[in-house]
Amino acid sequence: MKGSAQDFYDSLAADYHRIFPDWDASMTRQAAVLDALVRRELGAEPHRLLDCACGIGTQAIGLARAGHQVVGSDLSPVAAARAAVEAAARGVALPTAAADMRQLPFAPGAFDVVVCADNSLAHLLSARDVAAALREMRRVLTHDGLLLLTLRDYDDLRRTRPVSTPPQLSHGSDGRSITFQLWHWHADGERYDQEYFQLVPEGGGWEVRVRRITSWALTRSEVTEAATAAGFTDVTWHMLDASGFYQPVLTGRASAPTPC
Q: For the segment 166-188, what is each residue's pLDDT rounded down to a tens digit?
């Protein structure tokens, strides 16, 4: 998994902003929802926050703008490096590191909040890897710290098994682009291969860029069970109509470490 996911996001890093009709507007909108959840759960003051799948900074930059002390890490060193550059261009500090969420290079209890957004957990293709990642998120959280994790609504998607996503048109400073995906479901009905298409203006025409990756369509009950086993309590799902976020959001609180 690690090699293919890293290669995918290393390749996508320069074009990731093209996923959004307006990337900066998406940063602001997503940060408003996540920031409200953080302050409701932990209090109104700024908090120490790790975005452990920061990509090019979509959530991390917005949360830093909201006043939190944010660190970003990502499996892709190319994406993490771009996140730091994009943050600086917008007037905020965002230290970043290349790191696998299953082995985070941070001290126990270093953060009040861990964010794992944008369906990132779904790139871990086994229960063992999911468990390892959630244990690491728990480890780097202070006692009673907050986990914010977002995934696609796989409860519905595993029933319907869509074969594509609608085309998304982006109007960026570097021109228009079109993004869409083709999904090829495995026989187990749980995992699927994505072909990720981007049509980018080139020389008066279009260049087609195709990237491929596999995801695990984890249900909410599966993630709840794994998070509970990893040491999270008060695990709650916030659906789109209630949260305003574009994916279901899981919140959980880090329980006290078990004495040795």
A: 999 988 777 789 999 999 999 99
- pTM of the prediction? 0.94
- CATH code for the domain in which residue 39 is found: 3.40.50.150
For residue 17, being part of any structural domain is answered with yes
Which one-letter amino acid corresponds to residue 186? H
Same domain, 183 and 203: yes
- CA 156 to CA 188: how far, in whole Å? 16
Query: Domain of 126?
Result: 2-155+219-254
- Residue pLDDT, tens place only, 117-146: 999 999 999 999 999 999 999 999 999 999
H helical segments located in the chain: 2-12, 23-42, 58-65, 77-89, 127-139, 154-160, 220-229, 240-243
